Amino acid sequence: MKVVFLFQIIGGLLLLLNFLPVLGLVILCPIIFNIVLFHVTMAKSGLPMAIGVTVLALFLVGMYWDHYRHLVRQPR
User: Fold this and answer.
1) How far apart are CA 34 and CA 65, in angstroms?
2) Which of 35, 41, 62, 72 has the highest count of CB atoms within 10 angstroms of its CB?
3) Count of other CB atoms within 10 angstroms of residue 76
4) How far apart are CA 52 and CA 50, in angstroms?
5) Which domain holds residue 66?
């Protein structure tokens, strides 16, 4: 759990300081996905907060979509 905490701090700082925010999102999105999965399957009481964080992360991905576009493009 210390490693996950470290990655959360690093990803959050990258976003907060606007220094490589795309890398910050790449670090934080899998962690957010695991949090949402946990709350959907086991502890439904925290689901509204998890959905809120997911919406905010998706908003940021949308803002930086030009940086992610090549990851989902079909190869020619």
Assistant:
1) 22
2) 35
3) 3
4) 5
5) 2-72
Give the tokens for residue 7: 């990655």
Nearest to 65 by CA among 7, 14, 21: 21
* pLDDT tens track for 20-73: 889 999 999 999 999 999 999 999 999 999 999 999 999 999 998 988 888 778
- Count Cα atoms within 13 angstroms, Cβ side, for 53: 18
Containing 23, the helix (H) or strand (E) segment is: helix 21-41
* Residues whose CB falls within 8 Å of the CB of residue 46, separated by 6 or more in sequence, listed in order: 39
Beta-carbon contacts of residue 27 (< 8 Å; ≥ 6 apart): 7, 10, 11, 14
CB under 8 Å to 4, separation ≥6 — which residues?
Answer: 31
Number of domains in the chain: 1
